[in-house]
């Protein structure tokens, strides 16, 4: 699935506007986290993998927010070379809840808002996974019990599927950023074509 997404993107360039540039970069950060998660699962380091899934989700959320809802001043800050001053200027970026609200308000905007279906998938993913992901990231009961009792294979597979679901959303956002409707159309078929390794986002499933 991952190879197919990259194949569809191919050598297609991305829109060079500043907003698109930062959104594209954050999409590839999310893809890197997904690759790291798969590597950790392969090494039987599933507790750490769940921590990566949260930052994968946050990177995707940030990419969508940057494209559809971020103020221009934020775009300018994130395009600045990394210095102590630019780090300080960009440190107060909104959290997940604030970004979700910004995306919700952008729905139906004049050609620039996030599609309602994309917003609903992001909001649903957070609703289903957030509590457990926080526990893994902040040293809560989930990672402790998984360390003590073992990490069930079905749960590890579900983590992979959830991460893959985020990858498909990231791929779709990247397809939009190419500005090529043919690529976007082909990317929309990834989910049905690879449904066996993706979560059913309509089912409310816990991470643990």
Automatic annotation (TrEMBL):
This is Uncharacterized protein. It comes from the Bacteria. InterPro entries: DUF6988. The lineage of its organism: Bacteria, Pseudomonadati, Pseudomonadota, Gammaproteobacteria, Lysobacterales. Pfam families: DUF6988.
């Amino acid at each position: 699935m991952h190879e197919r997404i990259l194949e569809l993107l191919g050598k297609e360039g991305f829109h060079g506007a500043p907003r698109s540039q930062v959104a594209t970069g954050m999409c590839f950060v999310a893809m890197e986290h997904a690759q790291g998660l798969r590597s950790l699962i392969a090494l039987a380091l599933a507790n750490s993998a769940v921590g990566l899934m949260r930052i994968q989700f946050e990177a995707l959320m940030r990419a969508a927010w940057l494209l559809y809802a971020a103020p221009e001043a934020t775009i300018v800050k994130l395009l600045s070379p990394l210095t102590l001053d630019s780090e300080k200027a960009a440190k107060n970026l909104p959290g997940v809840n604030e970004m979700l609200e910004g995306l919700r308000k952008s729905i139906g905007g004049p050609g620039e808002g996030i599609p309602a279906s994309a917003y609903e998938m992001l909001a649903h993913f957070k609703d289903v996974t957030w509590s457990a992901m926080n526990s893994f990231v902040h040293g809560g009961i989930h990672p402790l019990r998984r360390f003590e009792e073992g990490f069930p294979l079905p749960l590890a597979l579900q983590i992979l599927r959830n991460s893959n679901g985020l990858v498909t959303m990231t791929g779709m956002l990247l397809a939009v950023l190419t500005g090529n409707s043919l690529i976007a159309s082909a990317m929309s078929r990834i989910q049905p074509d690879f449904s066996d390794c993706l979560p059913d986002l309509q089912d409310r499933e816990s991470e643990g």
